From TrEMBL:
Gene3D superfamilies named among the record's database cross-references: 3.40.50.2300, EAL domain
CDD domains linked to this entry: EAL, REC
Name of this chain's protein: Unannotated protein
Alphabetized SMART domains for the sequence: EAL, REC
Amino acid sequence: MTEPQPSSRLLVIDDDAAVAELLGDIAFGHGFETDIATTPAEIDRLAGIGHDLVLLDLTLGDTDGLQVMRLLRKRQPGVALILLTGADRTVLASAQRVAELSGFRVLGACSKPVDIDELGRLFEESKQAVVKDDTGAIRRLSDVAMNAIDEGQVHLLYQPKVDLASGAITGAEALVRLSVAGFETVSPGTWIPFIEATGRSRRLLNLVLERAADDRKNFAALAALGEISINLSVLDLEDLTLPDHIRSVLSASGAPAGWTLEITESAETGQLTDALDVLTRFRLLGFRLAMDDFGTGSSTFERLRIYPFNELKINRLFVHTDRGGLEHTRAMLRAAVDLGEALELKVVVEGVESDAELSLVNEVGCDAVQGYLVSRPVAADQFGLAQADWDRRRSQPV
Ligand code: C2E
Ligand code: MG
Ligand code: MG
């Protein structure tokens, strides 16, 4: 007997019943089970009852999309959204920003009339919420991830960081994966929002800290590195006891100066003072701090000025030369390097995939790189091999 297969559930919220029906039909064609809400009463009844995706029109007659977001934030924080509007693109862009800052996973923002192909693409992407395991059964990613965290089923992969002055691998970033058959390759970017929305962020962090400490003790190639980075969620920074806790878990396998804590500001920090307190204490204890994904989300100049970072990690979106061309990329990287120099921060560029990107990063004077060109993230026992492979490639004349 095969297991019953849950399909993805969609809620369409649009005050124009005809448009809502049409959108529902398109979604049905992409395999969604669809509910439709066109009045405030229907919205109140249907919003936040476990849909995988909400298609939200911003202009709704008696209410509006931002009010609906407030309701959803209470009932189903972190749910995936696609925003729609007939208003101009600047309104759509600000609404998208509100949604992101409120912790929703915003998959797309479409102007009306809707481009059916674009919407179809977004529907297909959002179906990642429902994933096949290796027995072929379809399971909801959020359930799999929450269960894995509760059961402690996670492991870490390590991606090398290359110091550009010497060309050698001197560090690594620890990246978490689910140790569940069929789900090991799913990016944490897709399931961490569920973990955070259900209050499991600290549990995840504790598992990651334990694994990183063990791996660094047990694998010589990791033990020999100058630093290993660990990702923290901004939500973790609300706990004032965190610095002492992290020190006690990590100290057995390396001095604080050999650990970098990467902070991504994907959501607005609730308590700025607490976050600042925690980050300052990390530095006083000797840990290094990196601002992750600089240039995207809320990783802003303001944060850079306030928080005591040592390192600036430039998001990979800035490195790809296809958008806006090479000159554009060079100018952005230069600006980031200048900023890093002025603030005495180490500048690390993420997502370097090609030799051309590496030369550009070298040319503008960044300090370190991380990316598929050097190595994909690898298991702890494979790190030595990845390092040897990079050393062999870089010593070969081009
Ligand atoms: P991040 O911290 O910015 O990590 C870099 C991501 O870029 C990783 O994705 C890595 O595999 C990917 N990447 C590295 N080089 C390349 C490249 O050349 N090309 C492309 N296309 N991608 C590259 P990953 O492992 O899927 O992680 C996604 C995000 O999930 C991370 O982004 C981080 O924000 C979060 N994350 C990962 N591990 C943890 C963790 O232990 N705790 C928390 N709170 N968040 C984590
Ligand atoms: Mg990171
Ligand atoms: Mg990053």
